[in-house]
């Protein structure tokens, strides 16, 4: 079986090559330092290859390249680095199509077994990472607290007046609607504008409508 190594640290790359090529059924056909190079090599390969790549080379902006690599029906074994094995990143890697995920410091036999499993179209997932992933996906997430509304800074009556202003009503219409005196409406309106730090009825109306919108 053909193996492509994608590792930017020479010591690790040499070590993996020696381990894999010691197996009679394995051959390292190419070595690259970056994922774009691995994608190019895999694309031009005449036979199916198993790509072994360090996790740090497939995260973030490189994820689209990883997806492209997996779409070529290329088996990918990601080697996780200590301290970077976050569950959200693991989810992204598996969603990209990766079927192999092992610690970077796995022993030689585990690396060999992982490559063989991928060549047989099987998965090679680290049990510890798998357990953490299951726990992450099955643990209920706390819903974020709703954002405080601007209108919550007003009293109930001030909020009623402000909402009617936002509907385009005049002070006289608001007074009739709420059965208040005109002076009381003006008092609530002045207090509302002061609390919301606006100077005109138009600014108040815009603020209220924005606060009541679904995106607020």
Helix and strand pattern:
EHEHEHEHEHEHHHHH
Provide the helix percentage.
40-55%
**Straight-line distance between termini:** 56 Å
* Count of individual beta strands: 6
Radius of gyration: 31 Å
Strand order across the largest sheet: 2-1-3-4-5-6
Amount of beta strand: 5-15%
Please state the overall shape, judged from the principal axes of the Cα atoms.
rod-shaped
Low-confidence segments, given as residue ranges, are: none
For the biggest sheet, the summary is: 6 strands, parallel
The structure class reads alpha/beta
Number of helical elements: 10
Average pLDDT over all residues: 86
Describe the structure.
The chain has 216 residues and is an alpha/beta fold. The chain has a six-stranded parallel beta sheet with strand order 2-1-3-4-5-6, sandwiched between helices. α2 runs parallel beside α3, α7 crosses α10 and α8 crosses α9. The longest helix has 15 residues. It starts with a strand and ends with a helix. The model has no long low-confidence stretch (mean pLDDT 86).
